[in-house]
Amino acid sequence: MLKSVRFFLFLSFIIIAFIATKTFAATYSCPDIRQYISCNAGYYLNNTDVGNSCVLCPSGYTSAEGATSIDECYIEVPGSYHIAELGDSVPTICGTGEYKEAHRVYYGDTSSCESCPYGFTDAPASEYINACAKKVEAGFYYTGSGFSACASGTYKGEHFVYSRTPVSSCDICPDGYKNTDILEGKGATSINECYIEVPEAYHIANANDSSATECTNGEYKEAHKVYYGTNSSCNKCPDYYNYGNGTSDIILCQTSLDPGTYTASKEDTTPVTCPAGYYCIGGTPFYREIPAYIEECPEGYTSEEGATSINECYINVPGAYHIAELGDSVPTICGTGEYKEAHKVYYGTNSSCNTCLNGFVDGEPVSANTDCKKLVPAGNWMGANY
Q1: Which pTM does this prediction carry?
Q2: Whole-angstrom distance, CA of residue 75 vs CA of residue 89
Q3: How far apart are CA 259 and CA 283, in angstroms?
Q4: Is the N end or the C end of the chain the one with fewer CB atoms within 10 Å?
């Protein structure tokens, strides 16, 4: 019985509550629950009859927290770019001669680039007006009102001058370097057109050196130009021609010869002993002089191998003859009553005949005193007292 009463009471409560709810709903409107939803950044609130939801902004776009419309979605556009078409998710770079600062574009809008000032429209797209520029051809600079060719000793590559400071100047060649060529009204276009004048017997050892280095023994180098960024080297003299300081030409390469030797040809790499009949004084001949430092003995004279001087040239004088005058190439016969043995006379000296002894002076010249003769008159004989 008690359980039946409790069930009846519960059922009565449910019926009363249902009737009360219906009556309240008919007389009072609840607030729209959708206005209490707040979307995260990058989303916006989408209101529909069905209900509310947060929708992701279009690709490339974002939003602040609590956005309530797609129109609050925006894209951050970097400098030198713009949004060319409605809803573009990728910015388009501005054209040459245009600029645009970084900016924000909301979905459904576009943006456009600004044109650079007149005459400064050669540079690629930039962020600021100060980066608008005029292109200057290599070999020239901009004075602010026109173009001028770089002067001698300067250079300039292709460059831009900017609207904020619309002038430029040429760069000066490095210390020790110059250029003097202005062709068809155009100056040098690069530092590599600067050069250094290198005197003979010198070279530029390292690229960009501002002073020349002397060639060493056995080297040569003509006067030449070396352009900045390059070097030069001395040439090696032929083998064996390594005497003296560096020089300007192969023909001035030198070798050193000991007395009694010479160089027979330019291909020789060692000295040759002076041959008989010649003399070789030695020295330091130039390559152009080869064969050099060898002289033939004077006419009628000869020498031994390895002679070092003309004074080693000699003449073989036969018996009964002598060299009367210095340098005579033909012996002179001795006089009557004279004798002279065969002998050798060196160039620059002479010789004389000897008088026969003991009165034996009547015969023809002979080569030895024992061959001297005395005339005995007819009817006489040669004895101890005659």
Answers
A1: 0.61
A2: 8
A3: 7
A4: N
